[in-house]
Amino acid sequence: MNTRHYFSCAALRTSIVLTAIGVFKGAAVLVGLATAIKLIAFIVTGKKICG
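Request: output the structure for the sequence above.
Response:
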């Protein structure tokens, strides 16, 4: 796995935990961050987003 996958997965896992404890705004921010990481990595590298 590349570094971008680690950061993206960490953001998604943290958002799941925040959703479970009821911090929905923080979870939404982290989902947006994970999406931004994937999109920026796609733009920079030209590789597909998943896989």
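The CA atoms of residues 29 and 48 lie 23 Å apart.
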